[in-house]
Design a protein that fits this description.
Layout lengths: L2 H13 L2 H8 L3 H15 L4 E4 L2 E4 L1 H26 L7 E7 H6 L2 H10 L4 E7 L2 H10 L4 E4 L8 E14 L10 E2 L8 E5 L4 E2 L2 E2 H8 L5 E6 L2 H10 L4 E4 H8 L4 E5 L3 E9 L5 H13 L21
Parallel strand pairs: 3-4, 3-5, 7-13, 8-11
Antiparallel strand pairs: 1-2, 5-14, 6-12, 6-13, 6-14, 9-10
Length: 311
């Protein structure tokens, strides 16, 4: 079994056709078929079922697929890491993060990186939930991830700072002239909820926080992305929670930001399966030096740190 054979197998699965896979790989179809048969012989059974209109995975192929993906991605990471040790002066760096961080917290960091390392190509992988982000690192999709502290402790975890969670209301809201608000004051308000909302003590964060204040939030709208929730809150659909850096730095020009009387903050980390080296280590250093959230030296005493993502 060779890495090339696994790459061929993954291409056939992706293209669902030996003909298209051979074209994508720039090899002849007989050569591709020979390599797949050799791979199947080495694992002891058929991985692909040949059909009149393409191919599909066998049960053995479905079991083999995620391990082949991990092996190929790990090999790519190993090549990038080896090249990156030459001073981060070439190659590429794959960074995975949550959509909210990509929109609000990382643009300035990426701009500084591009100015300092113009020969290193950045590839950004965005995910909706912390679970999906951790899984991407586990699969080897990215060299490192930027997000909440991972529950699974995938390898190396480096604290970066913290992000503050704020409340968003429209300009004509009755609280628009204030900067802080208590949750009981919002007990009668509709809320915009997001699929990215984390889980605290077995409950979605807003349910838990409002429960501590003595009420259950009334949901007016569910969204997929935090940036959408902010836009909806600005339009008056309801109140939403969002990271402060996203609201103030990207999508919050037409809304009012309120801080809960007891501030909500959660740690932000960078993590990877192996200790960052070369370009990855340089990126971590830049991230820690330029993280945009004030007070990013560690969680405060008011920190309410979501410990698990919504599922």
């Amino acid at each position: 079994m060779s890495l090339r054979q696994m790459e061929y197998f993954l291409t056939v699965v992706q293209e669902a056709s030996f003909t298209r896979a051979a074209d994508a790989l720039h090899v002849t179809q007989p050569a591709l078929s020979h390599q797949i048969k050799a791979l199947e012989k080495s694992v002891g059974g058929a991985l692909l079922e040949r059909m009149s209109r393409g191919v599909r995975l066998t049960p053995m192929g479905r079991a083999f697929l995620p391990h082949a993906e991990l092996a190929v991605r790990s090999a790519a990471q190993a090549r990038r890491a080896a090249r990156a040790t030459a001073g981060a002066e070439g190659g590429e760096l794959h960074v995975a993060t949550l959509h909210s961080l990509a929109v609000g917290g990382l643009p300035d960091v990426f701009a500084r990186w591009s100015a300092a390392h113009p020969r290193v190509l950045l590839l950004l992988h965005e995910y909706a939930t912390a679970d999906a982000l951790e899984e991407a690192v586990h699969r080897g999709t990215a060299d490192l991830a930027v997000g909440p502290e991972p529950a699974g402790r995938p390898g190396t975890v480096i604290p970066v700072g913290e992000e503050e969670i704020v409340l968003v209301v429209p300009f004509d809201d009755r609280f628009a002239g204030r900067t802080t608000v208590t949750l009981p004051e919002l007990a009668d308000r509709p809320w915009i909820r997001c699929a990215m909302e984390p889980v605290v003590h077995g409950e979605r964060f807003l349910d838990w926080a409002c429960g501590q204040a003595g009420f259950r939030p009334r949901t007016a709208l569910w969204t997929e992305h935090t940036s959408t929730a902010v836009r909806m809150a600005a339009a008056g659909v309801g109140v939403c929670t969002a990271p402060a850096h996203l609201v103030r730095g990207a999508v919050g020009e037409d809304c009012v930001v309120l801080t809960p009387e007891r501030a909500w903050k959660r740690p932000v980390t960078v993590y990877a399966r192996v200790p960052p080296t070369g370009a990855a280590a340089a990126f971590v250093d830049l991230l820690r030096a330029t993280w945009p959230v004030p007070g990013a030296t560690g969680p405060s005493e008011d920190c309410v740190a979501p410990v698990a993502p919504a599922r």
